[in-house]
Design goal:
Layout (H helix, E strand, L loop, with lengths): L5 E3 L2 E3 L4 H7 L5 E6 L2 E6 L8 H10 L24
């Protein structure tokens, strides 16, 4: 398919037909890479909540760095005056 480049700000863009997007299952995000002088665009498949457990495991691997175990004995109070409503 022959198409033209369009100016988009300081860059250039190409309109991709909806049939192409549907065929490749491309939705909102793509992974774009330059390989051997060619632009390769791949769909990004995101799994809901992907990586949540990895972050939790990393936090529990070093419990001394979590907020629950920080030493708050020397913490200063931001506002120790009486509040007026």
């Amino acid at each position: 398919m022959l198409t033209t480049m369009r100016k988009v700000g300081n860059s250039r863009g190409v309109l991709i037909p909806a049939a192409f997007l549907a065929s490749c299952q491309i939705e909102d995000q793509v992974d774009m890479q330059l390989q051997d002088g060619q632009i390769v665009i791949r769909p990004v498949k995101r799994i809901p909540r992907d990586g949540w457990f990895d972050q939790a495991a990393a936090a529990t691997a070093h419990p001394e760095e979590t907020a629950e175990t920080q030493n708050w004995d020397n913490a200063t109070t931001a506002d120790d005056s009486e509040w007026v409503w």
